[in-house]
Amino acid sequence: MNDNLDKPRxxxxxxxxVIFGVPVLIGALIHVLVWRHGIIGGITGxxxxxxxxxxxxxxxxxxxxxxxxxxxxxxxxxxxxTLVMSGPFKRTRNPIYxxxxxxxxxxxxxxxxxxxLISVFFGVxxxxxxxxxxxxxxxxxxxxxxxxxxxxxxxxxx
Length: 158
Prior knowledge:
With 158 residues, this protein is mainly α. It has one domain. It is 64% helix and 0% strand. The protein has five helices and no strands. Helix 2 (42-69) packs antiparallel against helix 3 (95-110) and helix 4 runs antiparallel to helix 5. The protein is elongated.
């Protein structure tokens, strides 16, 4: 008998960066080609945007380090052996995806691209519907009550 058939698997339609990135890219294209409405503009927008980008990059790096320290891999399709609840996971169940959000919002602000900023919310919605809900069901199946308690006290996003 093959033990791999008995183990739950996380099936995703595509990698999370693609699912999140496509709506954001569409928003950037809308900004370039159709609707050039701005947000903040000038050096203020660039500084605010770059701060958000740096925070997002730092969050992803920190999450990666914490996951690797627990023997886990950030690739969501890899089997999960340990429910990591320390580091950035104390504040959010999805610190890498929160990092995506901060990076994309920061780029939109730095580029003064309102359409791109609006599209970030479509990226969040797509990621939630197509990835996060599936991950949550998978983790609940694997870890049961431990995951349910964790998810009840820890937010999905920032």
